[in-house]
Amino acid sequence: PLRVLSGIQPTAGSFHLGNYLGAVRQWVALQETHDAFYTVVDLHAITLPQDPAELRSNTRLAAAQLLAAGLDPERCTLFVQSHVPEHAQLAWIMNCLTGFGEASRMTQFKDKSSRQGADRASVGLFTYPILQVADILLYQANEVPVGEDQRQHIELTRDLAERFNGRFGQTFTVPAPHILKETAKIYDLQDPSIKMSKSASTPKGLINLLDEPRATAKKVKSAVTDTGTEIRYDAENKPGISNLLSIYSTLTGAGVAELEQKYAGKGYGALKTDLAEVMIDFVTPFRERTQQYLDDPETLDSILAKGAEKARAVAAETLSQAYEKVGFLPAK
Ligand code: AQP
């Protein structure tokens, strides 16, 4: 089978709806058809300052949420990035193959560093996409299931894989992004011109899956809609309603056209009330399952230990090929 690799940061505590619909939901589906590797990327987390104790507990929390979302350790390899030292090792080689100007063009760095103040941004934040390149190439992934905001980083990964292969001989699989159109970008509920994000969204615009379900329902009900009254998918002219329709459709499996019909002649209020219910039905069991995994840290840690072992076997093999190609003298 083809292989997939993807990662999620353990920084915010709760996953938000954008993380789930844009990425994690695809991960769950792909474990059925692909050889799937999924990682909690704690090395990426420290590109911004983290409290050590919180980072540790958020890493477990991220793994618990992935399991609660439906990842099955029998069907995929779930591991913590720092448990596999090869990520940092291959990242160094990739750093040395990346042009400074090329790295400077990464828009996510520009956004995140400008929010922090460019002078305070770490060099790690700057080279973050290159660590991500290493994450993907180590597993010879064919596809990378992510949200639209990651497309540029996957492009960089392809460029670097081709560059390495061209310079040193065929070594890495050149991966393709796996981005589903309908959920590629979930928008902020209060400002549907920006993506839902832990750092840019206001609390009312951001749905955290672990929040109190009633609070979540309230956010849905007070989501910004558009002028007019018609419930119709039109991302350009009705971004607010279109975002709600995408979310509703994905969570229930009902087609957007079907929903348009269902709400024909009804107001925005009816749609939001129903979507609030849908959301409660989704987050309530998600929260419970997450808590169950957290209540049993031994099981959780042993899942992660087994995952790390499986991941390392693959990563070590790729890294040793890369070391040899580059010309490092083997240690005797
Ligand atoms: N709004 C979104 N719509 C669709 N997909 C999204 N993703 C994030 N936001 C959306 C996808 O979630 C995956 C994990 O992302 P991450 O761990 O890198 O978190 P992030 O992208 O840093 O999340 P945020 O909220 O967007 O954080 P900030 O505010 O720091 O930028 C990725 O596949 C991502 O595409």
UniProtKB/TrEMBL annotation:
Question: Which InterPro entries does the record cross-reference, listed alphabetically?
Answer: aa-tRNA-synth_I_CS, aa-tRNA-synth_Ic, Rossmann-like_a/b/a_fold, Trp-tRNA-ligase, Trp-tRNA-ligase_bac-type, Trp-tRNA_synthetase
Top-rank taxon of the source lineage equals: Bacteria
Per the UniProt entry, the Enzyme Commission number(s) are: 6.1.1.2
> What is the residue range of the motif 'KMSKS' region?
195-199
Q: Is Transmembrane helix tagged as a keyword? A: no
- Annotated residues for binding of L-tryptophan: D135
Kindly state which reaction or reactions the protein catalyses.
tRNA(Trp) + L-tryptophan + ATP = L-tryptophyl-tRNA(Trp) + AMP + diphosphate + H(+)
- Please name the GO terms that the record assigns under molecular function: ligase activity
Q: What does the UniProt entry say about where the protein is found? A: Cytoplasm
- In which broad location class does this protein mainly occur, judging by the first location in its UniProt entry? cytoplasm
- Record keyword Ligase present: yes
List where this protein forms a coiled coil.
Answer: none
Task: Fill in the subunit field for this protein.
Answer: Homodimer.
Q: Which NCBIfam families match?
A: trpS
Biological function: Catalyzes the attachment of tryptophan to tRNA(Trp).
Q: Indicate the family of this protein.
A: Belongs to the class-I aminoacyl-tRNA synthetase family.
Q: What is this protein called?
A: Tryptophan--tRNA ligase
Give the species: Streptomyces vastus
Q: Which gene encodes it?
A: trpS_2
